[in-house]
Amino acid sequence: MKYVVFTLLAAILISLGSGLYYLSRDDADSPKVLKALQIRVALSAILILFLVASYFMGWIQPPV
Questions:
Q1: pTM
Q2: Torsion sign (Cα): 56, 58, 59, 63
């Protein structure tokens, strides 16, 4: 469980870094910047859906 969350967080950070790299090297309207943003948003949505599904399936509990 933890490994999935940490892997997704690492992938989000890598996508954020690549977007920053392309933004500094290319124009702001570069397709590479847009692709990095799309990947980051998709990974964030997957992480949120995974955490919500895990909560409803009882795999994780809220802090008491």
A1: 0.84
A2: positive
